[in-house]
Amino acid sequence: MSLEDRAKAVAKNVEGKAQEAVGNVTGDPEDKAEGKAKQAESQVRHTVEDAKDAVKKNID
User: What pLDDT, in 10s, does the model give residues 6-52?
Assistant: First the structure.
């Protein structure tokens, strides 16, 4: 996984956690849902990149 891709995934996760926290404080269910969705997107990015790394390792 490239460092840039990992940084983007981590940033998306942090952004999602912050948005979810704002939703919890304000009681806005839409913010909570969007925050959780961003965290899920981050997890998918990590999984995809980990799979790419595994394939590359097996090829090398």
Answer: 899 999 999 999 999 999 999 999 999 999 999 999 999 999 989 98
Q: What is the pTM of this model?
A: 0.82
Rounded distance between C-alpha atoms, residue 57 and residue 60, angstroms: 5
Residue with tokens 């891709």: 5
- Measured CA to CA in angstroms, residue 52 lies from 14, 27, 29, 33 at distances of 23, 39, 35, 29
Type of residue found at 39: Q
Q: How far apart are the first and last CA of the chain?
A: 15
